[in-house]
Amino acid sequence: MKKICYAVFALVMFASCEDMFGGDGTDLSTGDIVKGLKEALNVGTDSSTAMLSVANGYYGDAAVKILLPDEAQFIEKTIKQIDGIPFFSTVSMEISEELDNLVLAINRSAEDAAKDVKPIFSQAITDLSIVDGLRILNGEVPGGDNDELKSSTGFDSLAATNYLKMQTYNALVDAYAPKVNAALGKKIIGNASATSIWNGITSKWNGLMENYGSNTLAVAAIKGIEKSTGKSLNLHTVDVDLGEFTTQKALDGLFLKVGDQEKAIRKNPFQWASDILRKVFGSVYEAVTK
């Protein structure tokens, strides 16, 4: 297959390359390329939101499952270290149970919010002006550090997904955050929401941290642990924006799944029903690396 020339001088150079597009000799216009890239992104986002918006879409998939925020992981780790100290025991047990519920509640909230993300992605893709469409088609992400990475890493089978993320991520966060926050406020686990569970955890934990210093037995027990292990427990109160955390992780999971779909299209464009996908991605089929 003839090597596809790269549009390194901007869009005006695309015309000189058009007679070389298409492994089967079919001409590809710049419009075809952009249409094909947007179609691939629409297929990826449609499939991804469908997969993630059902029960266990996030929670049951290890690749995208949202784990505890760092501050919650700190609480979980510390509770295990101070297990058995009377001052902490009752509340620690309650917090430990709530942490398990928190993981499930966060993921259920992400699954619920994913039901509403499709129009946000669709609009972002519609508005996306892919001025470097040929380069993206050929496995490059124009701009940023990717131009330097290209020479050492070769073909990027996530070029379209990475370009979409680079161009739209902040806007998607702004649009998606209200939906995530609304989902976090829904009563998903029994009669509790992810937000209420997290507020309960932080309230109990911060109450312990604010009061344990006045309990001489608790302080002595902590110092005993530190002396025996040689490590400071660094006890502190915690505060984290659960909505911001969940929004970021939920979108990261969505982009991961969109990328999986892009790789699948590039790997075998001829299995898709869409004519434009077969035409555009079929033109660079031999260039795809696994």
What does this structure look like?
The protein is mainly alpha-helical and 290 residues long. The chain has one domain (19-287). Helix content is 63%, strand content 0%. Helix 2 packs across helix 11 (242-267), helix 4 (86-114) packs across helix 8 and helix 5 (118-127) runs antiparallel to helix 8. It starts with 13 loop residues before the first helix and ends in an 8-residue tail after the last helix. The relative contact order is 0.18. The model is unreliable at 1-26 and 146-152 (pLDDT under 50).
The number of helical elements comes to 12
Strand segment count: 0
Report how far the terminal alpha carbons are from each other.
Answer: 18 Å
- Largest sheet geometry: none
Q: Tell me what portion of residues adopts beta-strand conformation.
A: under 5%
- Helix-strand category: mainly alpha
The overall number of domains is: 1
User: What is Rg?
Assistant: 25 Å
Layout of helices and strands, plus pairs?
Layout: H1 14-17, H2 30-52, H3 70-81, H4 86-114, H5 118-127, H6 133-137, H7 146-153, H8 159-184, H9 194-211, H10 216-229, H11 242-267, H12 275-282
Helix pairs in contact: 2-5, 2-11, 2-12, 4-8, 4-9, 5-8, 8-11
